[in-house]
Design brief:
2 domains, 434 Repressor (Amino-terminal Domain), single chain
């Protein structure tokens, strides 16, 4: 499969996940008279999000256009706000959700390892959270968890070395997206977040090979 085909395949997958996530959230985005979660109609969502009904119907598959839903970021943010979820959650694929769950379990298990506990304590006291420092910390965690292996090992095939290199890059770029220079995030979040980045990076490494 060519790079263009892979990109198109990912777009269609994410587009489909967006539609399904929005539909699922709509099923419980309102309340009945007894305060029980109930369905939000397309008309109600369109009004909440200030999106045209025909536009929303097209995104949800209600129109005749068979092209994948491709809303711009403004529309995604409006719809996410209207149903009360972070915008990113509307774009997550099943494997992304699975990676989050795996990352949580991995972190809980790792916190029973004295070596990991020592590293976690060191990360919580980091004096600098520049992208470079955060990436270095992510790679340390990836190696400790045995997610990252030596890409220069001579006894493995070139294909394996390429994958290990892609894996390392994916973990690095995932970790670099963490916005530590804003309110709400601090170094005590690092051990858990970087464990998640290692798992997410492993999930997405294939895309950048």
């Amino acid at each position: 499969m060519s790079q263009e085909q892979e990109e198109n395949s990912m777009f269609r997958e994410v587009s489909g996940c967006f539609v399904e996530a929005l539909r699922r959230s709509m099923r419980v985005a309102s309340e009945d008279e007894d305060g029980v979660p109930s369905a939000l109609s397309q008309a109600e969502l369109a009004e909440r999000a200030d999106v045209g009904r025909s536009t929303l119907a097209k995104y949800l598959g209600g129109g005749n256009d068979e092209a994948p839903a491709n809303p711009d970021l403004t529309i995604i943010c409006r719809l996410a706000n209207a149903v009360g979820v972070p915008p990113a959650l509307l774009l997550m694929r099943p494997q992304d959700w699975a990676s989050l769950a795996s990352g949580m379990l991995t972190f809980r298990q790792a916190m029973e390892d004295p070596t990991f506990i020592t590293l976690a304590s060191e990360l919580r006291s980091m004096s600098s959270t520049t992208s470079q420092r955060v990436v270095e910390a992510a790679l340390r965690i990836g190696r400790m968890l045995k997610i990252i292996e030596d890409e220069h090992e001579p006894k493995v095939s070139q294909e394996v070395r390429d994958f290990r290199r892609a894996l390392k890059t994916s973990i690095s770029t995932t970790a670099a997206t963490i916005p530590f220079r804003v309110d709400g995030l601090a170094t005590h979040h690092l051990p858990a977040l970087l464990t998640l980045c290692s798992i997410l990076g492993a999930t997405n490494a294939k895309a950048i090979r």
